[in-house]
Amino acid sequence: MKFPNFLHTSLSLFLICIVAIGCGPSDNKTSEKPNADSAPIEAPSQPTLTQQKEYIKTNVPISSLNELSQGDSMNITNTIRNETYTLKIRSVRNTLPTVVSITANIEDRETGLATLSIKDNQLFGMLEFYKENLRYQVAYDSAAGQAYLVERPFENEDELEGGTPLESSEY
C-alpha cells in the first residue's frame, strides 16, 4: 500500500464521517441517564456573541469548486484578518453524488493542509497550519449564507493511549 493512497483514503473517510454526522438526524431520543461521576460532554465551541465570526471568501465560486483539478490553485480569504491563503489542489473527488471532497496543500507542504467538502453549495472542512500549530474548522452560517472559520488549537485534541506521537524529519 502506498502512503499517499492511504492518506488520501483516510482523509476521504474522515470527510465522509464529518458530512454524515452533520447531515444526520438532530433529535436524539435515548433513554440513557447521565452518569453523575462523568464530566458533561461539551459541544464544539461556536463563536460567542462577543466574538466576531471570521467569514471567508474564495476566489472560485463554491458552485465551481468541483471543476478544479490537481495542480490548480484557489485562494481563501479571511475577511476579518484580511489574510489570504493559497491552496494548491492535490485532489478533487465526488465522494457522494451531492458531495465533493477537496484536499490541498496550504501554500506548500510545510505550511499546512486543507481538507474541504462541498454539499448543497455549502463549504465545510479543516485548515491545518503546521508552523503555527493551529487548526481552523470551516463551518457554514446558514443565516448569512457564508462559510466562516472556528479556531481549533491542536493542544485541545484528545491523544490516543499507548505511546508518543510519531515524528519524522522525512516530510
What are the key terms here?
8 strands, single chain, Lipoprotein, mainly beta, 37% strand, 12% helix, 8-stranded antiparallel β-barrel, 1 helix
* Largest sheet report: 8 strands, antiparallel, barrel
Average pLDDT taken over every residue: 76
Q: Flag low-confidence runs.
A: 28-36, 38-44
Helix content: 10-25%
- Report the portion of residues in β strands: 35-45%
SS content category: mainly beta
Radius of gyration: 17 Å
Terminal CA distance? 18 Å
Order the strands across the largest sheet as they lie in space: 1-2-3-4-5-6-7-8
Could you tell me the number of beta strands?
8
Assembly type of the chains comes to single chain
The arrangement of helices and strands along the chain is HEEEEEEEE
Question: Quick one: overall form?
Answer: globular
User: How many alpha or pi helices?
Assistant: 1
Protein name: Lipoprotein
Region (Disordered): 28-47
Organism: Gracilimonas mengyeensis
Task: Give structural notes.
The protein is mainly beta and 171 residues long. The protein has a domain at 53-156. The chain has one helix and eight strands; from the N terminus they run H-E-E-E-E-E-E-E-E. The protein has one helix at residues 3-23, and strands at 54-58, 73-78, 83-96, 99-106, 112-119, 122-129, 134-141, 146-151. An eight-stranded antiparallel beta barrel has the order 1-2-3-4-5-6-7-8. Strand 6 (122-129) and strand 7 (134-141) form a beta hairpin.
